[in-house]
Amino acid sequence: MSTNMTSSELYYKAVGSIVIYFTTVITALVICIVRTRFTASNTLYILIALSSLFTTWYYILSWFKGEYEALGSDLDRFIIESDLFIKAYAIVTNTLPKWWWSSQLLVLTGTALTCWSVEGQSLRLQIASGAVEKRKRSSSVKKWTPTWWFVLLGFFGSMSVGGPLFLAQLDPTPRSQSQVRTVPTILALLILLGEASVIATPYIPTMTAEFKYNLILTHALFLIPSLMTFNPETHKRFWTVRLPTLYFLLAAIALASHAVHSFPFLITPIIKKSELYNALWLNHCQTSISADLIFNNVLAAVYMLQSSYREKKLYVGIISTLAMPLLSVSTVLPLYLGWKEGLLVTKVSTRHKKRE
Fold first, then answer.
1. To 10 degrees, what angle do helices 185-200 and 243-267 make?
2. Residues near 201 by beta carbon (within 8 Å), at least 6 away in sequence
3. Contact yes or no for 258/332 (Cβ under 8 A)
4. Is 315 strand, coil or helix?
5. Hey, CA dihedral for 320, 326, 329, 333, is it positive or negative?
6. What is the DSSP string of 140-187?
7. Of all helices (H) and strands (E), which one includes residue 197?
8. Rounded Cα–Cα distance for residues 59 and 40 (Å)
9. Which residues in the chain come in under a pLDDT of 50?
10. Contact of 151 with 116, CB cutoff 8 Å
11. CB neighbours (10 Å) of residue 216?
12. Contact by Cβ (8 Å): 118, 233
């Protein structure tokens, strides 16, 4: 009798987890789409989000179907035994060729969460002060969407869906500022600890309690910054970190990670470069996360080219885009964002000199 009760409890717990998962994804997707600015300048972002949504989720659902069939097409058994959250990460980390693709996306999360948190808070303050309303007609102004909705969509849907929808809500008009923005020191520490947790992932035996706890820790460390409310214009010694500094630290971490995982394919004859391509198609789950990475590369290229063009520094966007296949998007994007943050301050200094 106790065994039956235990099985029943496991069943309902699993059903509850599945319901919560899909409710979270669908709710986040609807909210992010509703709050998106549908303008000509955002057309590419919308196309990337839609293309990623259909591509990544085609492979995710195909993987679900494969797992269901592997368990004898028994729905009750599939619900109780599949443990898809843990198994998905186990699949994309269990060999070096798979991790070569997956690590770039997961390490990129630190940069994405930093950017989303800072830009989200800046947008919140702009809306609160009426700066956005002064530049636009009141009919085109949308309410501020908390950053954590995009984070939830990125975590449980795909990063390349949450990312472009987040950028689509921002005002693309070039701006300037008197000093570089900052983030709370605690936020920077959480992001860096999240990166450390990601890097540790392939060294922990898969499908173990330690592996599960590390995944939960990774998501928590990256989610908490999106819940924080702060003013990026605030400068307090020891309590804040300059935004470019954090971006450059993230770039250094990403470069070290990418180098470590790329060297074996360059210096070891046993591991062939063709294995990287073959790893893309070994499993629908792996194909989904690799497609997510590819769409994030496209998103980063579009963002860097568009923003550098608006800043009249297109050559920087072109060089950065060309560098991504070699250095990885998780290295190049934070370098670009750090450079861009400094450029905004340089523009102010240049204007003051011209007035003098």
1. 10
2. 89, 93, 106, 211, 214, 215, 218
3. no
4. helix
5. negative
6. G--PPPPHHHHHHHHHHT-HHHHHHHHHHTS--S----SS--EEEHHH
7. helix 185-200
8. 30
9. 1-4, 132, 139, 352-356
10. yes
11. 12
12. no
**Residue 65 and residue 78 in contact, taking contact as beta carbons nearer than 8 Å:** no
Strand ranges (DSSP E) for the chain?
A: 182-184, 240-242
Alpha-carbon gap, residue 23 to 39, rounded angstroms? 28
Give the Cα separation of 197 and 243 in Å (integer): 21
Token readout for 238 is 């020891």
- Paired with 61 in beta bridges are none
Percentage of the chain lying above the pLDDT 90 cut: 58
Question: What mean pLDDT, rounded, does the chain reach?
Answer: 87
Q: Measure the CA dihedral 116/119/125/131, to 10°.
A: -140
Rounded Cα gap, residues 165 and 154, in angstroms: 10
What is residue 329's predicted lDDT score, i.e. its pLDDT?
97
Q: What angle do CA 282, 273, 155 make, to 5 degrees?
A: 50
pLDDT for 13: 80
pLDDT digits (tens, 9 = 90+) for 244-295: 999 999 999 999 999 999 888 877 766 777 888 888 888 899 999 999 999 9
Q: Which amino acid is at 193?
A: L
How many other β-carbons are positioned within 10 Å of the β-carbon of residue 74?
A: 12
Residue type, 279: A
